[in-house]
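Practice problem 4.
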């Protein structure tokens, strides 16, 4: 960290050519009065005009950085790529489909900054603008996950989060880790806070997830995270003598 950048916003995207322009402008507007910041879009092997749209935005938004995977690696890898490349000590993530509202970013940052014991602040979507089947699947999935992991989270699927970069980099990485950040940050001894946030309908493009696709991976991932919780003795302060 150079100290010149305080906040890094990380947005993983795939085939979101119609959404990246409006979203990047909204993020820039939401952070206009914030400390020095940067916006990183991670293009995860898009096959549409997303890379070109992002590149064109760099002249308009000087704090924008664009990184690109040469193939599709998934949302978790996109977040990890962005966090590793980030220059700020504070990370904000949000989904690239425009459903998370960038206007909520300052509220999450205020909660994170208020207490050094807090490692992550997660948004909780109110009045979700998803289909009834997706809302039901999410509700059932969250209840089962909380039963297994005891993380107290009502909405782990919300992409809008603010966390400390070093807290994230201490976590064991695996694909789909973004669904379990709350449980894993708690495992490291940090506190977690929740903030109600706005949720908006998708205006263009299509979701990259299905209820069935999430179900296929959720069981194995839950067992893996539960194992990680049990096989860790907690964070400890180290002193050189």
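Answer key:
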């Amino acid at each position: 960290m150079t100290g010149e950048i305080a906040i890094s916003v990380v947005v993983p995207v795939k085939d979101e050519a119609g959404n990246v322009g409006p979203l990047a402008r909204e993020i820039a507007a939401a952070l206009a009065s914030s400390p020095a910041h940067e916006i990183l879009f991670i293009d995860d092997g898009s096959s549409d005009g997303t890379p070109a749209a992002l590149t064109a935005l760099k002249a308009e938004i000087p704090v924008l950085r664009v990184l690109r995977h040469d193939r599709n690696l998934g949302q978790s890898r996109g977040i990890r790529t962005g966090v590793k490349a980030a220059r700020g000590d504070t990370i904000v993530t949000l989904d690239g489909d425009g459903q998370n509202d960038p206007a909520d970013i300052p509220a999450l940052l205020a909660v994170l900054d208020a207490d050094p014991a807090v490692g992550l602040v997660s948004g909780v979507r109110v009045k979700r603008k998803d289909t009834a089947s997706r809302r039901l699947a999410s509700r059932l999935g969250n209840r089962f996950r909380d039963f297994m992991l005891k993380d107290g989270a009502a909405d782990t699927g919300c992409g809008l989060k603010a966390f400390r970069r070093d807290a994230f980099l201490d976590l064991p990485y695996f694909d789909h880790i973004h669904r379990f950040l709350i449980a894993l940050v708690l495992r490291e001894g940090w506190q977690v806070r929740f903030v109600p946030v706005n949720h908006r309908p998708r205006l263009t493009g299509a979701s990259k997830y299905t209820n069935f696709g999430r179900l296929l991976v959720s069981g194995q991932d839950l067992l893996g995270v539960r194992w990680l919780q049990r096989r860790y003795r907690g964070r400890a302060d180290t002193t050189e003598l």
